[in-house]
Amino acid sequence: MSTGQNFISTSLVGGQDGTIFQDIYFRADNGSYMLNAADKGQLDPNHSIQQITVSSGWIVDGISITYQLVDGGSTTIQHGTQFPSAAVIKFNGDERLVGVYGRAGNQTYYKRALVNNINFVIFDTAKGTTRTVGPFGNNNKSNEGTPFYSSDVLAFGGFARWNSSEPIGLQGLFFYKKM
């Protein structure tokens, strides 16, 4: 007997130009979340994210998320353009991603809707403390787009384009959350 889908996705922020990505593939009958990666590993819902890497300049060009698997391993999924000098945000075993916020929408220089900047709020369950990391993007100080916020993010989805010779950007994001 199927237990049904046990996660939701938020509304899209930014644009939908490019290719859609959905880091959660499906929720299996046993209640596990399967990642949309080559190994289709089972996501650890209690500590889903080990690391986030953000490539940014005037916009958020790309993100890379390292997900924690139930078996103790991990898998990394990349979206958009990845820079060698990207910012790396590491999570310790007690930390959880409790908030993602920023601005997304029309970017006049690039003439399309993009993720213009992004920040992360991380909660340490052992110490009871939070830390905020960011902002990433908006280096031109334009503050274009509409503010967005999502809490208790389990995994990411969205739209991205990439090109090895030209940063094209993270077009839009939505967030998977446990119900």
From TrEMBL:
Q: Output the InterPro entries linked to this UniProt entry.
A: Jacalin-like_lectin_dom (IPR001229), Jacalin-like_lectin_dom_sf (IPR036404)
Which parts of the sequence belong to the Jacalin-type lectin domain? 44-156
Pfam families reported for this sequence: Jacalin
Protein name, as recorded: Jacalin-type lectin domain-containing protein
